Description:
The chain has 248 residues and is α+β, with helices and mostly antiparallel strands. It has 3 domains: 1-65, lambda repressor-like DNA-binding domains (434 Repressor (Amino-terminal Domain), Orthogonal Bundle); 68-112, no CATH class; 117-247, no CATH class. The chain contains 12 helices and 4 strands, in the order H-H-H-H-H-H-E-E-E-E-H-H-H-H-H-H. The chain has helices spanning 3-16, 20-27, 31-38, 46-56, 60-64, 71-78, 117-154, 160-164, 167-184, 192-209, 216-219, 225-247, and strands at 80-84, 87-91, 97-101, 104-108. Strand 2 and strand 3 form a beta hairpin. Helix 4 packs across helix 7. The protein starts with a helix and ends with a helix. Residues 68-74 have low confidence and may be disordered.
Amino acid sequence: MNIEIANRLVEFRKKAGYSQEQLADKLGLSRQAVSKWERGEASPDTDNLIALSKLYGVSMDELLGLNLGSNEEKEEAKSSTNIGGDGIHLVDDEGSEIHISNLGIKITDNSHDEDDPEEIEERMLQRKSAKYDALAYPLAALISTIVYLLLGFFWTHNGVGWAAGWTVILFALSFVSVGTAIIRKKMSDFFFPVLVTAIYCGLGIAFSCYDLPSFWHPGWVLFLFIPIYYVIAGPVDAWMSKKRKIED
């Protein structure tokens, strides 16, 4: 990447008052990625450029230092075809680029709607959520499996550990989904039905193993709370989304 652009990225970051770690966290990236941009060793992709433009409150032209002069010059610069010794370079009126050279064909789609902060915010949340999910769910599965084995070997009364202990896997999944819901800022992303199923099956089996009165009935009433939860979650998610729009 052009060192001048790298220096501009450093300048805008410092002007906004972010450290490299803070900026990386907001973009859902590693600090090393931001550091490479600012040393000119790598270039932000289109999504990250849009996110940076939004964070700093500047246009893409300002961010990249593309001073195209008058409005007429800017209109001419929007769409162009350049044929030279290094190949053919085409830029359409939406800023998408096609470069054809002896190195191959490179296509860059810059046609995203830069004025849609909701879409940008959603992509950033999805990135953070994907990183969290990739780590948290496998870890939860491993830990819950170990707990299940321990319950099976040590909670031996009437074999209740083996019979009911498997529900810890469901509890673990529902617990991890709390983090997903917080990151995505959506109550509906919490695995509430999984939690209800874990409680119902765990208590139902445990009661049976201890010869206690049946929990299966009236325990099924717990499932009635599932639609109630989503009736509440829907408006709350809509309100939170509306609040983010206003803040943006």
